[in-house]
Amino acid sequence: MPKPDYTQYIIEANRRIVKDICKPFILSDDTYKRIKDLFLVDIKKGLGKYTHKKASVKCYMTFVEKLPSGCEHGKFLALELSGDDCRVLCVNLQGDDDFKIEWQHFDVPPEIKVDTAKHFFNFLAKCLSDFIVKYDLQYEELNLGFTFAFPLKQTSINKGILVKWTKGYNVPGVVGNDVIALLQEAIERRGDLPINNIIILNNTTGTLISCAWKHREAKIGVLISGGFNMCYLEKSKHIQLFKNFGNYCPTMVINCEAGAFGNDGVLDFMRTSVDFTVNKNSMHPGQQVYEKMVAGLYLGEIARLTLLDCINAGAMLKGIVSKEILTPMVFRTHDMLQIELQEPGHYETTRKVFGKMGYRDTTSGDCENLRHICTAISTRSANMVAACLACLVERVGDPYLIIGADGSVYRSYPNYPSLLRNRLKKLVRPDFKFDVVQAEDGAGQGAALLAASTKRKKK
């Protein structure tokens, strides 16, 4: 009598274990509605005079009171710093939604992220100088829009105090200081940069401005990349802190700093054990709690730790823990998106990723299970972003508006935009209509546009 083949039974049993381990990432509709409601509570705290100081979602004023008209003209420089990337751009605005753009990318060396303030801003000034020389702009008089992708407390369009470092940066001597003044000092030390005026903005604000130049209905900006943040156009009468600044326009763009949502523990009810571990092992434990559940810098690490749980449960890779799988950040968000880009039933890329983690002999079941892990985590990210966006759509209150979206995760991750839209449709009340539009050239172009509109306003 032939021995029974238990292979399929084992595959199905292992799949059930993997699904059970991933279950905490699959949240109910009611949970997303609760997240949406809690975000509104925090928005109101951030805007309040007496609650702002203790609010997790700070809702910083940007002093961007109007969005572009589309009539801006001239050449404007932009410096964009975000994560591992530094870009310098020259945007030649020709009106009527027309522009020409030249740009250069610079890698930010890891040592610069923890170097002295002087060396850090000297590096940024050198990037500007190299670009200006390359494109023969030495004899132009240039306004600079500085996109600084870190939490800022602004007192004007020309002054931004760094509140805290995120995204793996920890340059001493910058927190609590005006980054515009520090950049200006570095520019003056060089003495070869024809920059007359510097304005500062968060990269999410830049995304909104870039989108609003072509879409007048744009009122919300969202950035899902290595980090995560949102901004929106708020009525000035609701910004209690703004009343201390004298005359003001009816509206202002608010930089939510949404990545800090949950820092006060209000979301602990839906955080998984993996989320707590990622937070504990991060450079800044207890900070950017929401960002650590949705942003590209952390999604791969969430997947690695979940995979490790599945291995330890004996449901994947024969229960063998390799040396490589124990290395933090060895599994990246880029690996996740490559796995999900593959057609179901094709495992070439997945096996290459496994190979990088020390596994040469993997089954189709292992590959399918890893795909399930990645999908559960990326879908939660899109849904959680949608929960906060739904709050802002209703907060703005327009019958129809456009959300400007950008960031490496939004642009590159398969199905991310559609997942986000689908969840938004479930969460936003039916009397509010919206579209999500990818911002062209994002924060960099937005910085140049803000420099242009600021110059025009001063004339």
From TrEMBL:
Q: Which GO terms describe its cellular component?
A: cytosol; mitochondrion
Q: Which domain of life is it from?
A: Eukaryota
UniProt xrefs under InterPro entries: ATPase_NBD, Hexokinase, Hexokinase_C, Hexokinase_N
GO molecular function annotation: ATP binding; D-glucose binding; fructokinase activity; glucokinase activity
Its Gene Ontology biological processes? glucose metabolic process; glycolytic process; intracellular glucose homeostasis
Stretches assigned to the Hexokinase C-terminal domain: 219-452
Family the entry assigns: Belongs to the hexokinase family.
Name of this chain's protein: Phosphotransferase
Species the sequence originates in: Glossina pallidipes
The organism that produces this protein has a lineage beginning with: Eukaryota, Metazoa, Ecdysozoa, Arthropoda, Hexapoda
